[in-house]
Amino acid sequence: MLWHFLGLLSYCFLSACSAGAINTHLKRNSTGLTDNVTWDPHSLSILGQRVFVLSAEIHPWRLPGNPNLWTDIFQKVKANGFNTVSFYVNWATHFPTPTTNGSQGDFQPGTYRDIQGFIDAAKDADGETTGGGFPGWVGNIAGNLRDNNAAYQQAWTPYLTVISKIIAKNQITNGGPIILVQAENEYSASTSHNIYMQDIINLYRASGIVVPITFNDQHGGAAGNFSPDKAGTHVDIYCGDSYPAGQVQAVYYSNHLAAAPTDPLCLAEEGHYWAGDPHRLEELDMRKYVSEQISTLRGLLRTGIQTVNPATGSGQNNADYENIFYKENYAQTTTILMTFGGTNWGQTAEPTSYTSYDYGAGIGESRIATIKMNEMRLQGAFLRVARDLLGATLIANGTNYTTSSLIHTAELRNLQTGAAFYFVRHDQSTSTALTTSRLNITTSAGRLTVPNLGQLTFNGLDSKILVTDFNFGRNGINILYSTAEILTWTTIGSVDYVLLFAPAGQTGETAIQLAKPTLDLSKLPNVSSRFSNGLLTLNYAVGGSQLVTIEDGNRTIGVVILDKRTAYNWHAPILAKQATFGNYFSIGVLVNGPYLIRKASILNDTLSLTGDLNGTTTIQAIVPPSVTKLTWNSQTLSVSKNSSGIMTATAQSLTHAPGIPTLPNLSTNKWKVTGSLPELAPDFDDSEFVTANLTSTNYTNLPPLAGDHVLYSQQYGFYGGNLLWRGHFNATGQETAIVTTVQSGFAGGYSAWINGIFLGSSQGTPTVSLTTDTWNLSSSMLRVGQDNVFVILQGGSSLPPHSGPR
């Protein structure tokens, strides 16, 4: 069983982030045990502030070689827009036997089992597992699993007690990062299931867990299993999962209203389907999702647009998927959305999964952040500062908002502040057509059709979040509307900066309510402006980066206009403070250029950046006037600073490509060869083998496959990996064949030998777990009147998530 937890990575306090309202007029729900984490139908609130939970899924056991690398992944996730990480704890990893470490489990510090170390790394900065995370020994328990079976409860109680106490001491109430805990996953309500679910909830609370308990339901959250708005056993916050398989799903909002209307809309899993495979491929997660994050795929995938190769990031396995599908989730008022896959080491994979758990995730198995993370950085940066979105209500959606019926729009409006968010995309989300249109909007200045000049342009596989009455900056600047998207905003020194972006070659129009603005566009030939009735309208062609500085009385506004590819290189890093939650504070600089910024800090006159480069890189940083120096990875750089407060420097990558090594001449080398399976020899001493002599089994639904003898390996303590079977018989010479029935699990297989002679192999498929084969024998293969040895090597035998024996 995989137990799911959610912890903070970064956090943005209201005083540092936004002038928007937080909708305090709605009643907040809580567990009754803490007010540190509360919720209402709009969003989660942490320490009294609304938060959009954008989470990436990371599994500690899938990066076991060096646990110090967990920090590397956390830093990359945090730097690329995510503010939380969800993680599974794998029961089998910590309790390989029922009595491991005196029934306290193996959580050895400094190893991949070190859950406390994993949580500490997060402060700094059912996932297709064999048996679904169940230890193999659990499969031998009499009766059903995942219900109120007393034998099963006796098995899971020690494990869940230990891990719950670890989680409890790391909750936000104790200065830790844990904000949510999940009970069970993809599970249905029934009389016995309700008792089991309540037992889990009771154990959590008895162990000191006070934060909200969640549940992840299947099918887009339509069923309402264990919803707090349904009768019977329930959790605090109900979530759904969905794998849209190429077309956006418009049912999340309606499902939410029917299943859990007092909760915020939560998608705990969201990703793709593999062509022909009904199993989910990621949890970012977002997984994943998380991460999945999390739009995840493996092999060749079909998304409804085209065949997709994760190695090249083509089709919708790249940033296009996130651009369309994630924004559609936001458009349906989702505010909790659950990236690194890693590797299924040591035969921990579910049978139909690959050794790699990469699946085209945003951070690859090699730990390289792909362009998908750049897209998530844009979205995460916007969600962090779009406070009014967290209290917004879905007003309407459809194709009647624009002058083109090919374009679909969803309008979300904050009824308290009047701010609105228009989510605009092709009505057919898989469309690759280029379409132009104009958008009908409602603003504080009345109804408008925008842009006034030019058109809105939608490339294929495109989606935009366009704002009206968007308030930003320390000085309370109001953007009446913008046809370019907002990346982020922040106040640096006395200047309120807002970053806008659109695809290169498109045009944009942004209208800002000001009193008496002055600006100099003489060096910006692609930007024009007009001012009338308190409204400054900027029109611009998008390409590269352009900075428009506007003076309005004692207010200064910096409008940075970027094309989307250029925007991918911009960062709004968190500047850590000295406090309990110091690593969760807000932005105070803007940086362009590096591949990755892991950490940023300002001390006196120096901005210190730590991160990674792809090569020699020009770094630009918008910094406070007091900052005149820049270091990169502790190396002081030579900088220039212009009148706009932008510092520029060049940083060199310290990683050099190695030369091609000299290879030995393999054809002239002397080779030594040895067999890898001495067990094939008839005279091999197998006296230390376990004798399969059981005649009864508690697998009541599966009779013995070999007459009176039980040949299920799990009954003898072998739960996976390669299995060797040796059978003995005295040959008469009349034997002509051996018939075998082998249950290797999905995608498993086996090979057979008689007296060391290879007979052949047989294998299952992703949908076939058991095969029956006839192996023909010749007289020359047999040793008449002597002991004959029949050997089976059973391979690929990890356990399916809903484990059956073998």
TrEMBL record:
Molecular function per GO: beta-galactosidase activity
Signal peptide: 1-19
PROSITE patterns assigned: GLYCOSYL_HYDROL_F35
GO biological process: carbohydrate metabolic process
Protein name per its UniProtKB record: Beta-galactosidase
Coiled-coil annotated residue ranges, if any: none
InterPro entries (alphabetical): Betagal_dom2, Betagal_dom2_sf, BetaGal_dom3, BetaGal_dom3_sf, BetaGal_jelly_roll_dom, Galactose-bd-like_sf, GH, Gly_Hdrlase_35_cat
Boundaries of every Beta-galactosidase domain copy: 388-570
Phylogenetic lineage: Eukaryota, Fungi, Dikarya, Basidiomycota, Agaricomycotina
Entry's family note: Belongs to the glycosyl hydrolase 35 family.
Keyword S-adenosyl-L-methionine carried by entry: no
Enzyme class: hydrolase
EC number: 3.2.1.23
Domain of life: Eukaryota
Catalytic activity annotation: Hydrolysis of terminal non-reducing beta-D-galactose residues in beta-D-galactosides
Pfam families: BetaGal_ABD2, BetaGal_dom2, BetaGal_dom3, Glyco_hydro_35
Keywords tagged on the record: Glycoprotein, Glycosidase, Hydrolase, Signal
Listed Gene3D superfamilies: Beta-galactosidase, domain 2, Beta-galactosidase, domain 3, Galactose-binding domain-like, Glycosidases
UniProt-listed SUPFAM superfamilies: (Trans)glycosidases (SSF51445), Beta-galactosidase LacA, domain 3 (SSF117100), Galactose-binding domain-like (SSF49785), Glycosyl hydrolase domain (SSF51011)
